[in-house]
Every structure is written in structure tokens, then in C-alpha cells.
Amino acid sequence: VQLQASGGGLVQPGGSLRLSCAASGRFFSRYAMGWFRQAPGKEREFVASSGWSGRSTYYADSVKGRFTISRDNAGKTVYLQMNSLKPEDTAVYYCGVGARAILSSTGAYYSAPTTYDYWGQGTLVTVSS
Q: Which of the residues 58, 66, 67, 69 has the least number of beta carbons within 10 Å of its own beta carbon?
């Protein structure tokens, strides 16, 4: 599976961005897809996930109500709509694909980096005035 992320950039506080991540190769729409981010000097942290077959979504508390994860109809592209951006959202954003998720997988499962078997190259989001 190959992942291509795009959509990062510089935005002012309060602004919006939409990230995209397209999967190719041996990918199945039942796979979980998620977004993580890593700020300078910090560990990679969970942002949002679209679970098994896109049937459920999960969010980190820090982005609930501001970010929305979604997939296209084919299930091969995942989006992250980011609104009301804050300077603390500045990070490199990575998309991941989890091939081992099942219908009963939980939010805790999807928030763990070890759930994801494939990663995109990352796209930088900078929130600054």
C-alpha cells in the first residue's frame, strides 16, 4: 500500500485547511485510515481515525468539534477538514492505514500508532499569524 498526503500549508489562527491522503496498491476499503501529527520535539500523536470500512470515526479530545475525518465513496482517499485552527495544531500530519482492524475494533485501538501498517510521507501544517 502506498499513501500520498497533500494539503498542508501556512494558515492564520482561526483558519481552515483540508488534508487529503490517497491510497494505492493492494488496498481494501475495509482498512482503517487515520491521521496522526508530530510537532517539533514531541512524539507522534493521534488526531482522528476512520475505522473498519469507514463505519466509525474517532477523534482526539484536542480536535473534537474542529476537525472532521471522512472518506470518498471508494474508500481509498481519506480527508481531514481542519477548522478553527490554533497555533498548537502546527505539526507534520501523517496518514496511516491499518490492515488488521475488524468491525469490533475500539477507539483505543484506532488511536494507537501500532495499529497502522502503512504511513504516508507527511504534510506540514503551520498555524501562525
A: 66
The partner residues of 11 in beta bridges, in order of sequence, read 127
Which SS3 state, helix, strand or coil, does residue 24 take?
A: strand
> Is-contact 85 15, C-beta < 8 A?
yes
Contact 125, 93 (CB under 8 A): yes
First to last CA, the chain: 37
| For the chain, counts of helices (H) and of strands (E) | 1, 11
Beta partners for 50?
33, 57
Cα 29 from Cα 94, distance rounded (Å): 19
Where the chain has pLDDT below 50, the residues are none
